[in-house]
Specification:
Largest sheet: 6 strands, parallel
Radius of gyration: 26 Å
CATH superfamily of the largest domain: 5'-nuclease
CATH topology of the largest domain: Rossmann fold
Helix content: 25-40%
Structural class: alpha/beta
Number of helices: 12
Number of domains: 3
Strand content: 15-25%
Distance between the termini: 80 Å
Order of helices and strands: EHEHEHEHEHEHHHHEEHEHHEE
Length: about 325
């Protein structure tokens, strides 16, 4: 009889010991229940290497099976450990064997190595959940190949209240902190959330907070509110001035904050600016610049228009003329 809960995805945890420090193990194990149950727990590397000594003391206590790969061939690449490619190959072969056995619903690949990008893509092609876990330096290609990517270095430093510079010698690489690749900014999040809300509004539907979370994760596999200093998605979204949370019987809906007052203020501001001109007119680009200087949080999509000149032309006292170079004129 299967001892795992059938409602939880069964996962294969595969760790690249040549690439990940043992100090991250607690972070890795604490993350697993977010995605399912690890029915396979394997770690790959040369455990005769002194650098792997810290792993040896942790494997038995945490029921992780070590897969020994001796460093029989010396690597000639700068900064690369001997036997690295052999370790990677063994992990990939095991992953495919596990896939074909049909006993799991997904994989957790713990490595910062971009060499596993194609493996992640292949597993997703087979409808597998693929959770990647790695450090700051993990390439965008591997992050985006996963269903979800977790930055374990950030979580470790966050929990230990340590700076990114407080890393031991094991973590130093040729491509250090200066080459950290990121795929997501607050502006990216705001644009995606705003787009979802506008799309639902056009269809007469409300936008649930859970839908926001799913959409952000689908678009950005490495999206995690903890990377922005939050523990809850609701708190994260609520801190955007542009959005507003509305409590429902089952959770929260998200909507664009009431902007009618500010839109009227913007209309009055534009009329006033045009009125100051001798010819009562101004180029659309100049008018847009003045509006954004006066109202930094203004977003044209919140007016119901996708282009600024169309919004201006909708104002009763302003008329837009021109084709390639548009001008707003007070009438």
């Amino acid at each position: 009889m299967n001892e795992t809960n059938s409602s939880e995805p069964r996962l294969a945890l595969l760790i690249d010991a040549d690439n990940i420090s043992a100090k991250y193990l607690s972070i890795i194990l604490n993350e697993i229940p977010r995605y399912g149950v690890a029915t396979y727990r394997r770690i790959y590397g040369d455990f005769t290497d002194p650098q792997a000594a810290k792993w040896r003391t942790k494997l038995l206590d945490n029921s992780i099976l070590p897969v020994q790969q001796f460093s029989n061939v010396k690597s000639h690449k700068k900064g690369e450990k001997a036997g690295k490619n052999a370790t990677d190959s063994t992990l990939i072969i095991d992953a495919m064997d596990i896939l074909y056995a049909g006993q799991v619903d997904g994989f957790i690949i713990v490595s910062s190595d971009s060499d596993f990008t194609r493996l992640a893509q292949r597993l997703r092609e087979s409808s597998m959940i693929v959770v990647g876990m790695g450090r700051n330096q993990t390439a965008i290609s591997f992050r985006h190949a996963c269903t979800k990517f977790v930055n374990i270095e950030y979580l470790y430093n966050f929990e230990q209240n340590r700076s990114d510079d407080d890393l031991d010698e094991y973590e130093e690489t040729e491509n250090g902190a200066d080459s950290i690749e990121t795929t997501l900014t607050l502006e990216d999040v705001e644009a995606v959330v705003g787009g979802i809300i506008h799309s639902n509004d056009n269809k007469g539907r409300s936008t649930e907070l859970s839908q926001i979370g799913v959409s952000l994760n689908n678009k950005f596999p490495d999206f995690d509110v903890r990377n922005f200093g939050y523990s809850q998605l609701s708190k994260f979204i609520d801190d955007f001035d542009r959005f507003e949370l509305v409590a429902t019987d089952v959770g929260y809906d998200v909507k664009i904050a009431d902007t009618q007052g500010s839109v009227r203020q913007i209309e009055e501001f534009m009329i006033s600016e045009l009125g100051k001109r001798k010819n009562k007119s101004m180029s659309i680009s100049s008018l847009a610049s003045k509006v954004h200087d006066e109202f930094p949080s203004f977003n044209i999509k919140d007016t119901g228009y996708s282009q600024f000149y169309k919004f201006v032309n909708s104002i009763e006292r302003i008329h837009v003329t021109g084709t390639t170079r548009k001008t707003a004129k007070l009438v």
